Amino acid sequence: MTEKATLTIDDRSYEFDMFTGAENERCIDITHLRKETGCITMDPGYGNTGSCYSSITYVDGAKGILRYRGYPIEELAQKAGFVEVCYLILHGELPTARQLADFRAEIAGHAALHENLKIHFSGLPHSAPPMALLSAMLNLVSCFHPEVLEVVAEGEEFERTAALLLSKVRTIAAFSYRMAYGKPFIHPNPNLSYCANFLHMMFSEPYQEYVASPVIEKALNLFLVLHADHEQNCSTSTVRVVGSSRANLFSSVSAGVSALWGPLHGGANAAVIKMLEEIKSSGQPIDHYLDMAKDKNNNVRLMGFGHRVYKNFDPRSVILKKRVYEVLDELQQEDPLLDIALELEEKTLKDDYFVSRNLYPNVDFYSGILLRAIGIPINMYTVMFAIGRMPGWIANWRELLEHKQRISRPRQIYTGSTTREFVELRDRG
Ligand code: ACO
Fold first, then answer.
1. How far is the CA of 264 from the centre of ligand 1 (A)?
2. How much is the average pLDDT of 198-218?
3. What is the DSSP letter of 277?
4. Residue 352 known to be catalytic
5. Could you give the percent of the chain with pLDDT greater than 90?
6. What is the pLDDT of residue 1?
7. Structural domains in the chain?
8. Pocket test for ligand 1, best of 226, 230, 357, 365 (most atoms within 8 A of CB)
9. Which of 227, 307, 329, 352 is labelled catalytic?
10. Residue 211 zone, left/alpha/beta (φ > 0; ψ -120 to 50; rest)
11. DSSP string, 11-50
Protein backbone atom coordinates (compact mmCIF):
# COMPACT_ATOMS: atom_id res chain seq x y z
CA MET A 1 0.00 0.00 0.00
CA THR A 2 1.32 3.45 -0.89
CA GLU A 3 1.95 5.70 2.09
CA LYS A 4 0.08 9.00 1.94
CA ALA A 5 0.75 12.45 3.33
CA THR A 6 -2.18 14.71 4.09
CA LEU A 7 -2.07 18.46 3.61
CA THR A 8 -4.81 20.71 4.91
CA ILE A 9 -5.39 24.12 3.32
CA ASP A 10 -8.43 26.24 4.22
CA ASP A 11 -10.14 23.29 5.92
CA ARG A 12 -9.77 21.10 2.88
CA SER A 13 -7.51 18.03 2.98
CA TYR A 14 -5.43 16.75 0.10
CA GLU A 15 -3.58 13.47 -0.07
CA PHE A 16 -0.22 12.98 -1.68
CA ASP A 17 1.72 9.80 -2.38
CA MET A 18 4.87 9.20 -0.42
CA PHE A 19 7.92 7.37 -1.69
CA THR A 20 10.72 5.68 0.25
CA GLY A 21 14.15 5.43 -1.32
CA ALA A 22 16.60 2.53 -1.15
CA GLU A 23 18.16 3.98 2.00
CA ASN A 24 14.81 4.82 3.63
CA GLU A 25 14.82 8.50 2.74
CA ARG A 26 11.21 9.59 2.42
CA CYS A 27 9.58 12.10 0.13
CA ILE A 28 6.14 13.48 -0.51
CA ASP A 29 5.34 13.51 -4.21
CA ILE A 30 3.85 16.95 -4.87
CA THR A 31 3.84 16.68 -8.66
CA HIS A 32 0.09 17.47 -8.69
CA LEU A 33 0.13 19.99 -5.84
CA ARG A 34 -0.52 23.09 -7.90
CA LYS A 35 -3.14 21.46 -10.04
CA GLU A 36 -5.04 20.24 -6.99
CA THR A 37 -4.55 23.07 -4.51
CA GLY A 38 -3.57 26.11 -6.59
CA CYS A 39 -0.51 26.50 -4.33
CA ILE A 40 3.16 26.02 -4.97
CA THR A 41 5.87 25.25 -2.40
CA MET A 42 8.60 27.76 -1.58
CA ASP A 43 12.10 26.45 -0.91
CA PRO A 44 14.82 28.93 -1.92
CA GLY A 45 18.11 27.08 -2.31
CA TYR A 46 16.13 23.80 -2.65
CA GLY A 47 17.20 22.52 0.79
CA ASN A 48 14.04 20.36 1.03
CA THR A 49 13.29 19.77 -2.62
CA GLY A 50 14.00 16.55 -4.46
CA SER A 51 14.42 17.15 -8.18
CA CYS A 52 14.88 13.57 -9.34
CA TYR A 53 15.09 9.89 -8.48
CA SER A 54 18.69 8.77 -8.90
CA SER A 55 20.65 5.56 -8.49
CA ILE A 56 24.12 7.06 -8.87
CA THR A 57 25.33 8.44 -5.55
CA TYR A 58 24.08 8.24 -1.99
CA VAL A 59 24.95 10.83 0.66
CA ASP A 60 23.87 10.69 4.30
CA GLY A 61 24.87 14.04 5.73
CA ALA A 62 24.16 13.17 9.35
CA LYS A 63 26.28 10.02 9.30
CA GLY A 64 28.99 11.31 6.94
CA ILE A 65 28.27 8.59 4.36
CA LEU A 66 29.14 8.89 0.67
CA ARG A 67 28.74 5.99 -1.74
CA TYR A 68 29.04 5.78 -5.50
CA ARG A 69 26.66 3.09 -6.83
CA GLY A 70 26.62 1.54 -3.35
CA TYR A 71 30.39 1.43 -2.81
CA PRO A 72 31.68 3.44 0.20
CA ILE A 73 33.98 6.30 -0.73
CA GLU A 74 36.56 5.11 1.82
CA GLU A 75 36.93 1.80 -0.01
CA LEU A 76 36.97 3.32 -3.50
CA ALA A 77 39.56 5.89 -2.38
CA GLN A 78 41.80 3.12 -1.20
CA LYS A 79 41.26 0.48 -3.86
CA ALA A 80 40.05 2.01 -7.12
CA GLY A 81 41.60 4.21 -9.77
CA PHE A 82 39.83 7.24 -11.24
CA VAL A 83 39.07 5.64 -14.60
CA GLU A 84 37.66 2.59 -12.82
CA VAL A 85 35.45 4.90 -10.75
CA CYS A 86 34.37 6.73 -13.92
CA TYR A 87 33.27 3.40 -15.37
CA LEU A 88 31.44 2.51 -12.16
CA ILE A 89 29.62 5.84 -12.03
CA LEU A 90 28.68 5.73 -15.70
CA HIS A 91 27.67 2.08 -15.91
CA GLY A 92 26.53 1.25 -12.40
CA GLU A 93 28.93 -1.69 -12.01
CA LEU A 94 32.66 -2.10 -11.49
CA PRO A 95 34.34 -3.03 -14.77
CA THR A 96 35.93 -6.38 -15.49
CA ALA A 97 39.64 -6.23 -16.39
CA ARG A 98 38.68 -6.37 -20.08
CA GLN A 99 36.04 -3.66 -19.81
CA LEU A 100 38.47 -1.43 -17.94
CA ALA A 101 41.21 -1.93 -20.54
CA ASP A 102 38.79 -1.09 -23.37
CA PHE A 103 37.48 1.97 -21.54
CA ARG A 104 41.03 3.19 -20.88
CA ALA A 105 41.94 2.71 -24.53
CA GLU A 106 38.81 4.57 -25.67
CA ILE A 107 39.65 7.52 -23.39
CA ALA A 108 43.31 7.52 -24.44
CA GLY A 109 42.29 7.57 -28.11
CA HIS A 110 40.47 10.90 -27.81
CA ALA A 111 43.14 12.88 -25.96
CA ALA A 112 44.44 15.04 -28.81
CA LEU A 113 42.74 18.34 -29.62
CA HIS A 114 41.89 19.37 -33.16
CA GLU A 115 44.54 21.81 -34.45
CA ASN A 116 41.90 24.48 -35.10
CA LEU A 117 40.59 24.16 -31.57
CA LYS A 118 44.09 24.73 -30.22
CA ILE A 119 44.28 28.03 -32.12
CA HIS A 120 41.62 29.47 -29.82
CA PHE A 121 43.96 29.28 -26.84
CA SER A 122 46.43 31.63 -28.48
CA GLY A 123 43.84 34.40 -28.92
CA LEU A 124 43.36 34.70 -25.18
CA PRO A 125 45.43 36.72 -22.69
CA HIS A 126 47.74 34.73 -20.43
CA SER A 127 45.73 35.95 -17.47
CA ALA A 128 42.54 34.28 -18.79
CA PRO A 129 40.88 32.41 -15.90
CA PRO A 130 41.26 28.68 -16.61
CA MET A 131 37.65 28.04 -15.56
CA ALA A 132 36.39 30.50 -18.21
CA LEU A 133 38.57 28.75 -20.72
CA LEU A 134 37.45 25.29 -19.70
CA SER A 135 33.79 26.17 -19.96
CA ALA A 136 34.23 27.85 -23.34
CA MET A 137 36.47 25.15 -24.83
CA LEU A 138 34.16 22.34 -23.77
CA ASN A 139 31.38 24.04 -25.68
CA LEU A 140 33.67 24.55 -28.66
CA VAL A 141 34.50 20.84 -28.88
CA SER A 142 31.15 20.28 -30.58
CA CYS A 143 32.29 22.53 -33.44
CA PHE A 144 35.00 20.00 -34.26
CA HIS A 145 33.09 16.86 -33.29
CA PRO A 146 29.55 17.60 -34.50
CA GLU A 147 28.52 14.05 -33.59
CA VAL A 148 28.46 15.10 -29.90
CA LEU A 149 25.57 17.44 -30.69
CA GLU A 150 23.38 14.34 -30.88
CA VAL A 151 21.50 13.90 -27.63
CA VAL A 152 22.00 10.18 -27.15
CA ALA A 153 22.04 8.50 -23.76
CA GLU A 154 22.70 4.89 -24.71
CA GLY A 155 24.69 2.56 -26.89
CA GLU A 156 28.04 3.00 -28.56
CA GLU A 157 27.39 6.61 -29.47
CA PHE A 158 26.93 7.58 -25.83
CA GLU A 159 29.96 5.50 -24.76
CA ARG A 160 32.09 7.31 -27.30
CA THR A 161 30.84 10.78 -26.38
CA ALA A 162 31.40 10.10 -22.67
CA ALA A 163 34.96 8.84 -23.28
CA LEU A 164 35.63 11.79 -25.57
CA LEU A 165 34.56 14.20 -22.85
CA LEU A 166 36.57 12.50 -20.09
CA SER A 167 39.58 12.69 -22.36
CA LYS A 168 39.19 16.19 -23.83
CA VAL A 169 38.56 17.83 -20.45
CA ARG A 170 41.97 16.65 -19.27
CA THR A 171 43.78 17.96 -22.35
CA ILE A 172 41.92 21.30 -22.33
CA ALA A 173 42.76 21.73 -18.64
CA ALA A 174 46.46 21.03 -19.18
CA PHE A 175 46.61 23.29 -22.25
CA SER A 176 44.98 26.17 -20.39
CA TYR A 177 47.78 25.92 -17.82
CA ARG A 178 50.44 25.84 -20.55
CA MET A 179 48.88 28.84 -22.26
CA ALA A 180 48.77 30.85 -19.02
CA TYR A 181 52.49 30.35 -18.55
CA GLY A 182 53.37 30.96 -22.20
CA LYS A 183 54.61 27.40 -22.59
CA PRO A 184 54.24 25.24 -25.71
CA PHE A 185 51.53 22.59 -25.64
CA ILE A 186 52.70 19.10 -24.81
CA HIS A 187 50.94 16.40 -26.74
CA PRO A 188 49.21 13.61 -24.86
CA ASN A 189 50.97 10.29 -24.57
CA PRO A 190 48.43 7.46 -24.97
CA ASN A 191 50.74 5.01 -23.23
CA LEU A 192 50.42 6.81 -19.92
CA SER A 193 47.71 6.38 -17.31
CA TYR A 194 44.96 9.00 -17.05
CA CYS A 195 46.69 10.89 -14.23
CA ALA A 196 50.26 10.43 -15.50
CA ASN A 197 49.19 11.68 -18.94
CA PHE A 198 47.63 14.78 -17.40
CA LEU A 199 50.79 15.51 -15.38
CA HIS A 200 52.88 14.91 -18.51
CA MET A 201 50.82 17.45 -20.50
CA MET A 202 51.11 19.91 -17.61
CA PHE A 203 54.75 19.62 -16.65
CA SER A 204 56.82 18.04 -19.44
CA GLU A 205 58.98 20.33 -21.56
CA PRO A 206 59.79 19.79 -25.26
CA TYR A 207 63.10 18.16 -24.46
CA GLN A 208 62.47 17.11 -20.89
CA GLU A 209 59.91 14.49 -20.11
CA TYR A 210 58.17 14.88 -16.75
CA VAL A 211 57.80 11.51 -15.11
CA ALA A 212 55.26 11.57 -12.33
CA SER A 213 56.39 9.87 -9.14
CA PRO A 214 54.03 7.13 -7.96
CA VAL A 215 53.26 9.23 -4.87
CA ILE A 216 52.11 12.18 -6.95
CA GLU A 217 50.16 10.03 -9.39
CA LYS A 218 48.41 8.29 -6.50
CA ALA A 219 47.61 11.59 -4.80
CA LEU A 220 46.08 13.02 -7.98
CA ASN A 221 44.13 9.84 -8.51
CA LEU A 222 42.74 10.08 -5.00
CA PHE A 223 41.78 13.72 -5.50
CA LEU A 224 39.82 12.84 -8.65
CA VAL A 225 38.12 9.81 -7.09
CA LEU A 226 36.95 11.91 -4.12
CA HIS A 227 35.41 14.48 -6.45
CA ALA A 228 33.81 12.08 -8.94
CA ASP A 229 30.20 12.66 -7.91
CA HIS A 230 28.17 14.20 -5.13
CA GLU A 231 24.49 13.90 -6.02
CA GLN A 232 22.38 17.00 -6.63
CA ASN A 233 24.81 19.81 -5.73
CA CYS A 234 24.81 23.22 -7.42
CA SER A 235 26.84 22.25 -10.50
CA THR A 236 25.25 18.83 -11.03
CA SER A 237 21.79 20.34 -10.71
CA THR A 238 22.88 22.92 -13.27
CA VAL A 239 23.95 20.17 -15.66
CA ARG A 240 20.55 18.55 -15.17
CA VAL A 241 18.64 21.80 -15.64
CA VAL A 242 20.50 22.57 -18.86
CA GLY A 243 20.25 18.97 -20.03
CA SER A 244 16.51 18.96 -19.33
CA SER A 245 16.06 21.26 -22.33
CA ARG A 246 17.74 18.41 -24.28
CA ALA A 247 20.93 20.43 -24.69
CA ASN A 248 23.86 18.24 -25.70
CA LEU A 249 26.26 16.74 -23.16
CA PHE A 250 29.13 19.16 -23.84
CA SER A 251 27.05 22.32 -23.47
CA SER A 252 25.39 20.89 -20.36
CA VAL A 253 28.71 20.20 -18.61
CA SER A 254 30.07 23.53 -19.81
CA ALA A 255 27.29 25.14 -17.73
CA GLY A 256 28.27 22.83 -14.88
CA VAL A 257 31.81 24.24 -15.02
CA SER A 258 30.41 27.77 -14.66
CA ALA A 259 28.31 26.76 -11.66
CA LEU A 260 31.28 25.05 -10.06
CA TRP A 261 33.43 28.14 -10.41
CA GLY A 262 31.82 30.13 -7.56
CA PRO A 263 33.63 30.35 -4.19
CA LEU A 264 30.67 28.86 -2.32
CA HIS A 265 31.04 25.71 -4.43
CA GLY A 266 34.11 24.37 -6.26
CA GLY A 267 35.89 27.72 -6.14
CA ALA A 268 36.27 27.19 -2.40
CA ASN A 269 39.39 25.02 -2.80
CA ALA A 270 41.38 27.98 -4.15
CA ALA A 271 39.70 30.36 -1.70
CA VAL A 272 40.89 28.17 1.19
CA ILE A 273 44.53 28.51 0.18
CA LYS A 274 44.14 32.27 -0.32
CA MET A 275 42.59 32.48 3.14
CA LEU A 276 45.38 30.43 4.75
CA GLU A 277 47.99 32.58 3.01
CA GLU A 278 46.23 35.71 4.17
CA ILE A 279 46.20 34.47 7.77
CA LYS A 280 49.90 33.61 7.50
CA SER A 281 50.98 36.92 6.01
CA SER A 282 48.76 39.04 8.26
CA GLY A 283 50.72 37.97 11.33
CA GLN A 284 47.44 38.18 13.26
CA PRO A 285 46.39 35.33 15.55
CA ILE A 286 43.96 32.83 14.05
CA ASP A 287 41.30 33.95 16.54
CA HIS A 288 41.22 37.28 14.76
CA TYR A 289 40.21 35.58 11.52
CA LEU A 290 37.66 33.41 13.30
CA ASP A 291 36.11 36.53 14.83
CA MET A 292 35.81 38.04 11.35
CA ALA A 293 34.13 34.88 10.05
CA LYS A 294 31.65 35.01 12.92
CA ASP A 295 30.88 38.70 12.50
CA LYS A 296 27.69 39.11 10.47
CA ASN A 297 28.62 42.69 9.61
CA ASN A 298 31.19 41.58 7.07
CA ASN A 299 31.15 39.04 4.26
CA VAL A 300 34.02 36.92 5.54
CA ARG A 301 33.31 33.20 5.73
CA LEU A 302 35.66 30.49 6.79
CA MET A 303 36.33 28.95 3.40
CA GLY A 304 36.31 25.17 3.29
CA PHE A 305 33.89 25.04 6.21
CA GLY A 306 30.23 24.13 6.18
CA HIS A 307 28.14 22.06 3.86
CA ARG A 308 24.50 21.98 2.90
CA VAL A 309 24.28 18.24 3.47
CA TYR A 310 27.10 17.12 5.78
CA LYS A 311 26.33 18.22 9.29
CA ASN A 312 28.87 16.21 11.30
CA PHE A 313 31.77 15.57 9.01
CA ASP A 314 32.54 15.33 5.33
CA PRO A 315 34.05 11.86 4.73
CA ARG A 316 36.12 13.23 1.84
CA SER A 317 37.75 15.76 4.12
CA VAL A 318 38.67 13.03 6.62
CA ILE A 319 40.33 10.97 3.85
CA LEU A 320 42.12 14.01 2.43
CA LYS A 321 43.44 15.18 5.78
CA LYS A 322 45.05 11.80 6.40
CA ARG A 323 46.46 11.60 2.89
CA VAL A 324 47.87 15.13 2.95
CA TYR A 325 50.14 14.12 5.84
CA GLU A 326 51.31 11.01 4.02
CA VAL A 327 51.93 12.81 0.73
CA LEU A 328 53.92 15.63 2.34
CA ASP A 329 55.87 13.03 4.27
CA GLU A 330 56.54 10.85 1.23
CA LEU A 331 57.59 13.88 -0.83
CA GLN A 332 59.65 15.17 2.09
CA GLN A 333 57.85 18.48 1.90
CA GLU A 334 56.61 20.75 4.63
CA ASP A 335 53.75 23.14 4.20
CA PRO A 336 53.26 25.89 6.78
CA LEU A 337 49.68 26.28 5.54
CA LEU A 338 48.90 22.79 6.84
CA ASP A 339 49.79 23.88 10.39
CA ILE A 340 47.48 26.89 10.07
CA ALA A 341 44.72 24.68 8.66
CA LEU A 342 45.06 22.21 11.53
CA GLU A 343 44.97 24.98 14.13
CA LEU A 344 41.95 26.51 12.44
CA GLU A 345 40.10 23.21 12.47
CA GLU A 346 41.01 22.54 16.09
CA LYS A 347 39.77 25.96 17.20
CA THR A 348 36.48 25.72 15.36
CA LEU A 349 35.76 22.37 16.98
CA LYS A 350 35.74 24.15 20.35
CA ASP A 351 33.92 27.24 19.19
CA ASP A 352 30.21 27.42 19.86
CA TYR A 353 29.54 29.48 16.69
CA PHE A 354 30.84 26.69 14.43
CA VAL A 355 29.67 23.77 16.56
CA SER A 356 26.10 25.06 16.91
CA ARG A 357 25.86 25.60 13.14
CA ASN A 358 27.44 22.23 12.31
CA LEU A 359 30.28 23.83 10.39
CA TYR A 360 33.08 21.34 9.78
CA PRO A 361 35.83 21.14 7.15
CA ASN A 362 34.46 20.13 3.76
CA VAL A 363 36.24 18.48 0.82
CA ASP A 364 37.79 21.79 -0.21
CA PHE A 365 39.55 22.45 3.09
CA TYR A 366 42.45 20.05 2.66
CA SER A 367 42.31 19.49 -1.10
CA GLY A 368 44.21 22.71 -1.90
CA ILE A 369 47.10 21.59 0.30
CA LEU A 370 47.20 18.26 -1.54
CA LEU A 371 47.16 20.00 -4.93
CA ARG A 372 49.94 22.35 -3.79
CA ALA A 373 52.05 19.33 -2.88
CA ILE A 374 51.48 17.86 -6.35
CA GLY A 375 52.63 21.15 -7.89
CA ILE A 376 49.28 22.34 -9.29
CA PRO A 377 49.04 26.16 -9.30
CA ILE A 378 46.18 27.73 -7.38
CA ASN A 379 44.28 29.06 -10.41
CA MET A 380 43.92 25.46 -11.60
CA TYR A 381 42.38 24.03 -8.42
CA THR A 382 38.77 24.39 -9.46
CA VAL A 383 39.63 23.08 -12.92
CA MET A 384 40.98 19.97 -11.18
CA PHE A 385 37.66 19.66 -9.37
CA ALA A 386 35.85 19.90 -12.71
CA ILE A 387 37.96 17.08 -14.20
CA GLY A 388 37.10 14.96 -11.19
CA ARG A 389 33.38 15.76 -11.30
CA MET A 390 33.02 14.96 -14.99
CA PRO A 391 31.83 11.31 -14.56
CA GLY A 392 29.14 12.47 -12.13
CA TRP A 393 27.91 15.14 -14.51
CA ILE A 394 27.84 12.71 -17.43
CA ALA A 395 25.98 10.04 -15.44
CA ASN A 396 23.41 12.58 -14.21
CA TRP A 397 22.89 13.93 -17.72
CA ARG A 398 22.35 10.41 -18.98
CA GLU A 399 20.00 9.46 -16.13
CA LEU A 400 17.85 12.52 -16.73
CA LEU A 401 17.36 11.46 -20.35
CA GLU A 402 16.75 7.83 -19.42
CA HIS A 403 14.06 8.97 -17.00
CA LYS A 404 12.63 11.29 -19.67
CA GLN A 405 12.63 14.07 -17.11
CA ARG A 406 10.47 17.08 -17.93
CA ILE A 407 12.18 20.36 -18.70
CA SER A 408 13.18 22.10 -15.42
CA ARG A 409 10.97 25.05 -14.81
CA PRO A 410 10.53 26.19 -11.19
CA ARG A 411 7.75 28.57 -10.23
CA GLN A 412 7.93 31.82 -8.30
CA ILE A 413 5.75 34.00 -6.12
CA TYR A 414 5.58 37.42 -7.69
CA THR A 415 6.15 40.31 -5.24
CA GLY A 416 6.42 43.28 -7.64
CA SER A 417 3.92 45.98 -8.65
CA THR A 418 0.45 44.94 -9.64
CA THR A 419 -0.82 46.22 -12.97
CA ARG A 420 -0.42 49.98 -13.53
CA GLU A 421 -0.88 52.42 -16.35
CA PHE A 422 2.04 53.30 -18.61
CA VAL A 423 3.26 56.92 -18.16
CA GLU A 424 4.43 58.71 -21.32
CA LEU A 425 8.05 59.91 -21.23
CA ARG A 426 7.01 63.57 -21.42
CA ASP A 427 4.82 63.18 -18.32
CA ARG A 428 7.42 61.55 -16.07
CA GLY A 429 8.92 64.80 -14.74
N1 ACO B 1 31.91 30.54 7.82
C2 ACO B 1 31.16 31.24 8.72
N3 ACO B 1 29.83 31.08 8.86
C4 ACO B 1 29.23 30.20 8.06
C5 ACO B 1 29.93 29.43 7.11
C6 ACO B 1 31.33 29.62 7.02
N7 ACO B 1 32.04 28.92 6.14
N8 ACO B 1 29.08 28.62 6.45
C9 ACO B 1 27.87 28.87 6.97
N10 ACO B 1 27.95 29.80 7.94
C11 ACO B 1 26.86 30.28 8.81
C12 ACO B 1 25.93 31.22 8.07
O13 ACO B 1 26.34 32.57 8.19
C14 ACO B 1 24.62 30.94 8.75
O15 ACO B 1 24.64 31.59 10.02
P16 ACO B 1 23.27 32.15 10.67
O17 ACO B 1 22.38 30.96 10.85
O18 ACO B 1 23.69 32.79 11.93
O19 ACO B 1 22.71 33.13 9.67
C20 ACO B 1 24.66 29.42 9.03
O21 ACO B 1 26.07 29.13 9.15
C22 ACO B 1 24.05 28.58 7.93
O23 ACO B 1 24.66 28.96 6.71
P24 ACO B 1 23.98 28.86 5.28
O25 ACO B 1 24.67 29.81 4.36
O26 ACO B 1 22.50 28.97 5.42
O27 ACO B 1 24.33 27.38 4.88
P28 ACO B 1 24.16 26.77 3.44
O29 ACO B 1 23.85 25.34 3.62
O30 ACO B 1 23.22 27.57 2.62
O31 ACO B 1 25.60 26.96 2.76
C32 ACO B 1 27.85 26.60 2.21
C33 ACO B 1 26.54 25.95 2.67
C34 ACO B 1 27.62 27.40 0.94
C35 ACO B 1 28.82 25.47 1.88
C36 ACO B 1 28.39 27.49 3.34
O37 ACO B 1 28.64 26.72 4.49
C38 ACO B 1 29.65 28.25 2.92
O39 ACO B 1 29.55 29.34 2.37
N40 ACO B 1 30.87 27.68 3.19
C41 ACO B 1 32.11 28.32 2.76
C42 ACO B 1 32.37 28.06 1.30
C43 ACO B 1 32.76 26.62 1.04
O44 ACO B 1 33.61 26.05 1.70
N45 ACO B 1 32.12 26.05 0.02
C46 ACO B 1 32.42 24.69 -0.42
C47 ACO B 1 31.30 23.74 -0.07
S48 ACO B 1 31.68 22.10 -0.52
C49 ACO B 1 31.48 22.09 -2.20
O50 ACO B 1 30.70 22.80 -2.78
C51 ACO B 1 32.32 21.19 -2.92
1. 8
2. 95
3. H
4. no
5. 96
6. 63
7. 3-65 (2.20.28)
8. 357
9. 307
10. beta
11. TEEEEEEEEE-TTS-EEE--TTHHHHHS-----GGGTT--
